[in-house]
Design goal:
CATH class: Alpha Beta
Helix content: 25-40%
CATH architecture: Alpha-Beta Barrel
CATH superfamily: Aldolase class I
Number of domains: 1
Order of helices and strands: HEEEHEHEHEHEHEHEHHEH
Number of helices: 10
Oligomer: single chain
Strand order of the largest sheet: 3-4-5-6-7-8-9-10
Largest sheet: 8 strands, parallel, barrel
Structural class: alpha/beta
Number of strands: 10
Shape: globular
Radius of gyration: 18 Å
CATH topology: TIM Barrel
């Protein structure tokens, strides 16, 4: 991977490498990149109406400003995703490892979840962010979501990126664990060159071979937050300490570090009973732990000139 050079700044990144103050991105009734920190919180996977309504109320009461949740999930294996399983109930009950549904069938099944996910957000006054895994999902999601997340696996999905240029809604762009800041800003430049500038970038960890735990999926790169604020200071930066650590006991400490390092906000997995979450049970915070995290962030924010 290459470092960002002066030639890159002049020739490859002329639109994203603009010096100046942070340009806030509007998401529903809030914004990302202003003096107030943005806390995006919610389930890694929207499992049921009851689940997402309970989470929406809990994170709103604690101070979150955006409700996050996954409906489409680009998982490593197909059997953990109830949307893909022909015999699974609408809320994922009984997950037999049988016939995998077609994309058309998956889209049809997903809409009911987006309906109550959007209703949950509206019930507490929070805009919602969710990830499309393919371009065909945008039309389905457009009436429901306030922000699209481009997950790290989709960072170079050009069909998806092109389609997102044709929506007025903002995009949260995650960096792939194996890609550089140079590559991430290259994708931002693809958006900017096509006239789409309401982009927020997200640092979600890098893959490294040498650490305290050889089984770690990724390590949160605090230095990346500093670098993004240097090379693209007008673009808001969010940190994802949940997916980057993949370990519940690390999430609060890494959240504090990210805010101190200059992040404009956080993306946090929250679940009422993390141990039984459909996806990523090792990293989600329960409601009590999320409240503790928010108290920590409130104590740190004034020290770096931010509010919550």
């Amino acid at each position: 991977m290459k470092d960002i050079s002066e030639t890159d700044l002049q020739n490859n990144l002329p639109l994203s490498n603009v010096q100046g103050s942070k340009r806030p991105v509007i998401v529903g009734n809030t914004q990302v990149g202003g003096e107030t920190l943005t806390i995006m919180a919610g389930p890694c996977t929207v499992e049921s109406r009851e689940q997402v309504f309970a989470i929406a109320k809990a994170v709103k009461d604690a101070g979150a400003t955006i409700l996050r949740g996954g409906v489409f999930k680009p998982l490593t294996f197909p059997y953990g995703d109830p949307l893909l399983l022909a015999d699974a109930g609408s809320d994922g009950e009984d997950l037999p490892r049988t016939h995998i549904l077609s994309k058309k069938e998956v889209l049809e099944r997903a809409e009911s979840r987006f309906v109550y996910f959007a209703e949950a957000g509206k019930s507490v006054g929070l805009p919602i962010v969710s990830e499309p895994t393919f371009a065909d999902a945008i039309d389905l999601m457009e009436p429901y979501v306030d922000m699209y997340q481009v997950g790290y696996r989709s960072m170079f999905n050009m069909d998806l990126l092109y389609r997102l240029c044709h929506t007025s809604k903002p995009v949260l762009l995650k960096r792939h664990a194996g890609e550089s800041i140079r590559s991430l800003l290259g994708v931002v430049e693809h958006f900017y060159a096509r006239g789409k500038t309401n982009i927020v970038v997200c640092e979600r960890g890098v893959a490294v071979p040498h650490t305290h735990n050889t089984a770690s999926r990724a390590i949160l790169d605090i230095q990346a937050i500093v670098a993004l604020n240097e090379y693209a200071p007008t673009i808001p930066v969010i940190a994802d300490p949940s997916h980057s650590t993949f370990k519940r006991s690390y999430v609060c400490a890494m959240s504090r570090a990210a805010i101190a390092g200059g992040a404009d906000g956080l993306l946090i997995d929250v679940h009422p009973t993390p141990e039984v979450a459909w996806v990523d049970p090792l990293q989600a915070l329960n409601f009590e732990a999320f409240n503790t995290l928010m108290k920590d962030v409130r104590s740190i924010a004034p020290a770096v000139g931010r509010t919550l």
